[in-house]
Design brief:
Strand content of chain B: under 5%
Distance between the termini of chain B: 13 Å
Helix content of chain A: 25-40%
CATH superfamily of the largest domain in chain B: Winged helix-like DNA-binding domain superfamily/Winged helix DNA-binding domain
Structural class of chain B: mainly alpha
Radius of gyration of chain A: 25 Å
Oligomer: heterodimer
Number of strands of chain B: 0
CATH architecture of the largest domain in chain B: Orthogonal Bundle
Largest sheet of chain A: none
Order of helices and strands of chain B: HHHHHHHHH
Number of strands of chain A: 0
Order of helices and strands of chain A: HH
Shape of chain A: elongated
CATH class of the largest domain in chain B: Mainly Alpha
Number of domains of chain B: 2
Largest sheet of chain B: none
CATH topology of the largest domain in chain B: Arc Repressor Mutant, subunit A
Shape of chain B: globular
Chain lengths: 68, 207
């Protein structure tokens, strides 16, 4: 496997001096996550959430105890 | 079935509305977690919808006062593992995903493309990927992540460490799958590990 192809580095490969700093992508991972969290909720989710009230929760075993 | 009394108690109306509110609040997090896991937004959203329905159905098993996010992540995770085993996500990675999100903070020496990051993330074995997502993106503690994954804290630490190392290596060497055919290879690797992951934890539906 010749996977160690150092191709396309944005800078010259000799990036010395930082063997163990926190990975630069660590923040990117959060960005990926947060960017989705911050997205507006699509309508189909709103619809589903609205619909939930009309769906009775499954009885956890067998107890149709109908007390409001 | 005497256990029914313990778990099957009815919730008050206010507890039910609390549940609904909390469930609603975690939807964005479920979407983010799902997208990290499976790559394609539409598929991830399907997974979240499935999760919401399952969570709703199982709401009496939720203990008020505990973390709704952690509870629903368990459900999502299990749904994901089930779907993965059915090959539902195979080869479905969308290269466009995350491209638009990318912006490296100014001053950062080497901008990491989020699309590369996401692609690299998807090549990790499922167990490491989810561990890293939970801790590194979702902000869960190791303990919480361990509870979600149904494994020991040390195991989560080790998975996160390995995931980080693998990502760092991939991102620095540029050895990231570029196309969906490569991604398919990655998925195959993931699938091979799934049985281990799925059988290694006892979190099926947390009775």
């Amino acid at each position: 496997m010749a996977a160690q192809h150092n191709q396309g580095g944005a800078h010259g490969g000799g990036d010395d001096g930082a063997p163990r700093r926190p990975p630069e992508w660590a923040d990117g991972l959060k960005q990926l996550y947060d960017s989705v969290v911050e997205e507006a909720l699509p309508d189909n989710f709103k619809d589903l959430l609205d619909r939930l009230d009309s769906i009775p929760p499954a009885p956890s075993s067998d107890g149709p105890d109908s007390r409001g | 079935m005497s256990e029914a009394d313990a778990t099957g108690e009815r919730r008050s109306a206010s507890e039910k509305s609390d549940f609904k509110r909390e469930l609603t609040e975690v939807v964005p997090h479920l979407r983010a977690f799902a997208r990290g896991l499976c790559g394609r937004p539409d598929v991830a959203d399907d997974l979240v919808q499935e999760t919401l329905l399952k969570a709703w159905a199982a709401q009496e098993r939720f203990e008020p006062g505990t973390s709704m996010r952690a509870w629903t992540f368990v459900i999502l995770r299990n749904a994901y593992l089930t779907d993965m085993r059915r090959n539902r996500f195979r080869g479905e990675y969308d290269e466009g995903v995350a491209e638009r999100i990318l912006t490296a903070p100014a001053g950062q020496e080497e901008p990491i493309h989020l699309s590369d990051l996401h692609r690299a993330l998807l090549t990790l074995p499922a167990e490491r990927r989810e561990a890293l997502l939970l801790v590194g993106a979702g902000g869960f503690s190791y303990e919480e992540a361990a509870a979600i994954c149904g494994c020991a804290v040390g195991t989560i630490k080790s998975r996160v460490g390995r995931a980080r190392a693998a990502l760092s290596e991939m991102l620095s060497s540029g050895a990231i799958p570029r196309r969906s055919s490569d991604d398919d290879v990655a998925h195959r690797a993931i699938l091979e590990e799934l049985d281990t992951v799925a059988s290694g934890n006892g979190v099926s539906s947390r009775g």
